[in-house]
Amino acid sequence: QVGAKQPTVAANWLTDVDGEEIPAGAAAVHGISTEKAHAEGVDLRLAVEEILGALTQVILSGIPVVAMNARYDLTLLDREAQRYGFQPLADAIVIDPFVIDKQVDRYRSGKRTLTALCQHYDVRLDAAHSADADAVAACRVAWRQATRYPQLATMTLDELHAAQIGWAAEQAASLQEHFRQTRPDAVVEGAWPLIPRQREMTS
To answer: What is the CATH classification number for the domain harbouring 178?
Structure first.
């Protein structure tokens, strides 16, 4: 948790990845090898349960969830909850710096990774690709976006959440149109903040 004149509270979970292998490319980014995860990680089921519990407590307190590229992380968490038979995450107000940045500065060239956004919005990023450091940085990017673009600051949280649903859909449609210039069958998912389960099951 970040802001509200309270101390920053961050948490990390290292899991055993349920015995799976971590690709070498991913390990090179975040520094966690398959061997380290298997040796030091907690049971994945337990970690999923604890993460769901922590987020649920935040959501029920009325605090928005900030997630960079929320569609990926929240969908992944939702599917893991489903796999282990846990209740899905409660409906949350989500703030996604990735979606917001593409909306407010759509013609800016260059990458829109968290590292790139931190540089663009002058946010310090300590220990990049550490989950807790990335989460704190995403919160600070969202705050900088609200201070830089007054139209964001004047929205209620409900209005901002609803706006992002539309923005994400428009962004996906635009990217899909671009891809189809060379790949006529290209499909870009537009659902946000997560992909509904029923859509995945029927596709």
So the answer is: 3.30.420
- At 30-59, the pLDDT tens digits run 889 999 999 999 999 999 999 999 999 999
Residue 177 maps to a domain? yes
SS3 state of residue 173: helix
Please give the radius of gyration of the chain, using alpha carbons only, rounded to the nearest integer. Answer: 18
Query: What is the per-residue pLDDT across 133-166, written as a single tens digit (0 to 9) for each?
Result: 999 999 999 999 999 999 999 999 999 999 999 9
Domain count, the chain: 1
CA 61 to chain centre: 20
Domain residues for the domain of 51 are 17-202
Which residues, 6+ apart, have CB-to-CB distance to 201 below 8 Å? none
Q: How far apart are the C-alpha atoms of 188 and 175, rounded to whole Å?
A: 7
Q: Which amino acid is at 152?
A: L
Dihedral angle computed from the Cα positions of residues 98, 61, 12 and 72, in that order, rounded to the nearest 10 degrees: -30
Any domain includes 9? no
Give kind and range of the element (H or E) at residue 36: helix 34-40
Chain centroid to CA 128: 15
Contact indicator for 17, 37 with CB cutoff of 8 Å: yes
